[in-house]
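Lab notebook, bench 4. Still working through the backlog of constructs that have no structural model yet. Next entry is a single chain of 318 residues. Request: give me the structure tokens for it.
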Amino acid sequence: MTDPLRTLVLPPLGSLPLSRADSDRDGDSRTAENFLDLLWTAADTLVLPLVRGKAPVVGHTLRLVAPVDVQRPEVLVYLGRVSEGAADAGRRIVLAVLDEEDASLAPLDQWLGLREIAGSLDARDAGLFVEAAAIANWHSTHTHCPRCGTGTEVRDAGWVRRCPKDGSEHYPRTDPAIIVSVVDDDDRLLLGSAVAWPEDRYSTLAGFVEPGESLEAAVLREVGEEAGIIIDSPQYLGSQPWPFPASLMLGFTARALTTDAVPDREEMRSLRWFTREQLFVEVRDGKIAVAGGVSIARALIERWYGGPLDEEPSEARP
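Model written out:
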């Protein structure tokens, strides 16, 4: 059977670092009776240990271990089955959420977070790490029923939490957020420095989608709130999971109808319009820093720029 992930038609931003995957989540298996018990005793099961968002990494590869190498924790989650053609094809992967790093699995300095290593991982490991980080974050914040406060029980191989008192079932949630490259009629890019960041850090504008709001409406609203400018024609470019803790970033570009950008001072400290030459020089000289390589923000910036930011603008990129 053809793997749908391999035939996926990619949007304009292409395959982003945290959007890659080389495994089948195998959702049909999650409800099998005692499925995690069976996996924990199977000789070919692989375990991904995770401690507060960090996993053991050897070189540029996740260290996946056998169940016998890990003391079984309270939270286990079935992550799926590795796709054909990838390393360990066909083997099933289980997430084990541990309390402390285990030096027997990897030296403590080799337990790394997703932001640190994602750009160096292959598609299999990037996909597994993103999935693991996101579901582990959900478990850590949904230990009790939101209706009655009773402690919930883990079901369906880690993908459901059920309240034993009222019987309600609770599922992992993802918070949609838009992120947008705003460009004016002079082909300048608008970047902002958020109040929570160092003063020299700049990125594209972003914000969460509100209840009952379309993505396009969220783009117009967020840019208006944070920058005080009017935009039109938001165009979707691609998406990337951002499990810090539970976002899905939906990337857009839009044309500015007004250019008098005024920061709201609550979320945004300052706003600036950049030509390609200005951005190149200020990043090169260390005057400003922009979003890192694994973020969709960097992909949006470099799509406008026309290539990597460490390359000087050409005639095609004035």
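Notes after review: The radius of gyration is 22 Å. The longest helix spans residues 123-141. Flag for follow-up if needed.
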